[in-house]
Amino acid sequence: MGAQQQVADAFAALYGTAPEGIWSAPGRVNLIGEHTDYNDGFVMPFALPHTAVAAASRRTDGIVRLHSADVEGGVAELRPEDLVPGTDRAWTAYPAGVVWALREAGHPVTGADIHLASTVPVGAGLSSSAALEVVVALALNDLYGLGLQRWQLARLCQRAENVYVGAPTGIMDQTASACCEEGHALFLDTRDLSQRQIPFDLAAEGMRLLVVDTRVKHSHSEGEYGKRRAGCEQGAALLGVDALRDVPYAELDAALARIDDEEVRRLVRHVVTEDERVERVVSLLKSGDTRAIGPVLVEGHASLRDDFRISCPELDLAVDSALAAGALGARMTGGGFGGSAIVLAEAAEVETITKAVEEAFAAASFTAPRVFEAVPAAGARRLG
Ligand code: GLA
């Protein structure tokens, strides 16, 4: 039975009627451009085939009912007018936060029955929470005829995450889930959300992209994430710019010379060089020089490890063991402190590299990683 039918059946069993519709929204990996999104910079994620699926119907009595196939417990029932940011510590904060954000922005969402099921690994740095937010936002947008565009849904989902859930994240994950297209990476300018879909078909060129989920949960990272964000904002203020995006790469050394604080200097160096790496990857892909992005990914990892200091032994080992086994490039992806790494490899080397990474983890007595291939999949959409 397909995921769509399963979700529809579960909805009917829970709520007693067929859902009005079914929607899906994917998780993502980020090819390059890490911790640049809250600095108004560039990112380049693509959607995973792993999705959150929602079956949903409207209600007119001001009640929202939420259920997840992935979490123990029954149906949660809430009243939109009672929602208070920062009070929900459960999974329901993500869908409830979206209802809150939509209503706060003046959109007439009068209630809903929602059943969710997700295949996006949780805590793996693959944006399982953004997938949940975006699928609910898209469902409510369609059901209530709100007419919001994808980027507007992404903004509202980010607001749900920042204010309602209380995680100070940027706009990358929600935009990736809402706007990515199959077979493409999304080159996104996070300042104005202008986008370019960049064809990214590694298989056609005899390559693969692997995701190594280290199984180190990154859920305790919010404090550290917030600290990095605050440090970047401090750097921008010291340099007299709105955001670090405004520090030209060519002027980086001069800018660094003006910062006394060693930590802030490192953060600034990462962000400014990372924006340049995104632009380099875009131009390499444009000129068909795909293999040459490998070393850029490796540079990005070193910068996240040494300057931004958000890697961990498992991520470093995933990257180092993959490279030692012949990978073209590798780096941690996502927020850091655990989660996943990506590995760019020749198709013929995939088995050798996977084995090498698994053996390295076993030798270090780390939990066995989960390695899978990622092909750019579709963004959020209505399934039925
Ligand atoms: C997390 C956040 C994003 C982004 C990345 C790092 O995934 O949700 O907004 O900041 O970390 O690039």
SSE layout and pairing:
Blueprint: H1 3-15, E1 21-30, E2 42-43, E3 45-58, E4 64-68, E5 76-78, H2 93-104, E6 112-118, H3 128-143, H4 150-165, H5 172-179, E7 184-189, E8 195-199, E9 207-213, H6 222-239, H7 252-257, H8 262-286, H9 293-307, H10 313-324, E10 329-333, E11 340-346, H11 350-363, E12 370-373, E13 381-382
Parallel strand pairs: 4-6
Antiparallel strand pairs: 1-3, 1-13, 2-7, 3-6, 4-5, 7-8, 9-11, 9-12, 10-11
Helix pairs in contact: 2-3, 2-4, 3-4, 3-5, 4-5, 6-8, 8-9, 10-11
The structure holds alpha-D-galactopyranose.
Secondary-structure content class: alpha+beta
CATH fold label of the largest domain: Ribosomal Protein S5, domain 2
Number of domains: 2
Shape: globular
Q: Can you tell me the residue ranges where pLDDT is under 50 for at least 5 consecutive residues?
A: none
Order of helices and strands: HEEEEEHEHHHEEEHHHHHEEHEE
Please name the CATH architecture of the largest domain.
2-Layer Sandwich
Q: What's the average pLDDT?
A: 97
- The strand count comes to 13
The spatial strand order of the largest sheet comes to 5-4-6-3-1-13
- Radius of gyration, CA atoms, in whole angstroms: 21 Å
Q: Please work out how many helical segments DSSP would assign.
A: 11
Given this structure, which CATH class of the largest domain is correct?
A: Alpha Beta
Tell me the major beta sheet: 6 strands, mixed
Helix content: 40-55%
How far apart the termini lie comes to: 15 Å
Q: Tell me what portion of residues adopts beta-strand conformation.
A: 15-25%
